[in-house]
Fold this sequence. Notes:
mainly beta, 22-stranded parallel sheet, eleven-stranded mixed sheet, 5 helices, 33% strand, elongated
Amino acid sequence: MTRRPLGQPWTAAQILLIATMSCVLVSACARRGDAKTLYVDGGAGNDATSYTDNGPARPWRTIGRAAWGSSDRARPDAGQAAQAGDTVRIAAGRYATGGNQTGGGGGRFDVAYNPVNEGTAGRPIRFESSGPVELVYSSGAGPMIGSNERDYIEWSGFTISEGTAPTRPDTGPVTFFNVTGGSIEHSTLTGNPNMTARNGDNYNGVRLEDARGVRIAHNRIADYGGQTNDRNHAGIETYRAFPLLIENNEIVNCGSGIYLKAVKPDGSGIDTVTVRFNVFRGSRWGINVLQQPMTEAKPLLVYQNIFVGQREAGFWINMFDHRVQDARWVRFFNNTLIDNVAAMASFDAGVWPADSRFLFWNNIVSGGGHAVRQDTTDVALNNTKDRNDFDRNVYHGVKSFGDLGGASRGFGEWRRLKQDANSITADPGFRGPTDYRLKPDSPARAVGRALHGVGGPDGTTVPAGAYITGSETIGPAVDTGR
Length: 482
């Protein structure tokens, strides 16, 4: 499959790093001449077929045979399994295996289809469907796909449901643990839509822990804790996962759509995180940010996303330790937020450290309860420009502009804090009730200014909101590469 270029706003160093991980270096691709396409067909395959003989006319029967080199996970054979550079094409059907966990929370990173081999930079091992493929458990539970200490493992085009593939505490059906490279793409992950309590055990769709250079793209993720008040239940949850690219996903009815959670205790090891082109619907929080002490050179970039109907907040930043682990250099720009209880910048109690450098520019907020909510002991101090910088946003139809320090405040009071000097209150002029592209005469078209190279050179006039050109794909695209 041809991958979309990562492109802006990555720095030159980041482009080189992700390119190395994603098979776009010419020298690496040139070495793929010995890579093999392997085939799995649950109806017509035979696991007795050798690696050498596997082909379209002689597929294997199980995915495990490709991953482990054996039908028995406990007796892997690396020489008979998918090798670095190989692609495993899996025919449509329902594929069952046993889960690695039978109870409790132990072995939470034991991915059922964890390959015996690993890929290398420019030569991943890729598992992709050739039609609708559902993955289920015959027994047990735990993570189904991803990677446990195997680098450069890619998965594309799978359906996994909690009803037929249950998880265990502190994990998810897709888990990447202690890896470099890898991806989950074009897949559908569905949790339990009726869950009302899960004992705070981090109920996740995709779980990243100590994962470097992973891409999460074009997936539909739903029902991971949306009925609870627990932000730890998330469509995507990350621990010490840098750099990271999350793009073109649709996330529905989760506690947190994305929870960017933990770093090392000393705040080290961070690298650029980009969250773009995603759609969030009906979760309690769209994106939750906790311990993300980014830098000017390696920021957290959240842009061109759509947030609709979050029941607590579209975008939320939480205080952690008031020291080295707190979030910094979060850049939230060119997003569209519709009918959220609170739209953006919802902080925990306290005052942010000086030089936090949060930026909220070029967004459209339409409808909902509040445009801005800040749970803070000192509203004026929390909104010095070295802490928060709101500008060039478009606000329309919110019930009360701000919930600031527990009090309802209007737009005029907010501006007296020296925020949103160049923002406007106006109907943004969407093309339709659910079409958030802008009409030609929209007043939002002249409000924004380009940041981090998105939409043009920095400072260029750009529209506010998620659609800068109007032709962007926001949410999952149809996968035509398989």
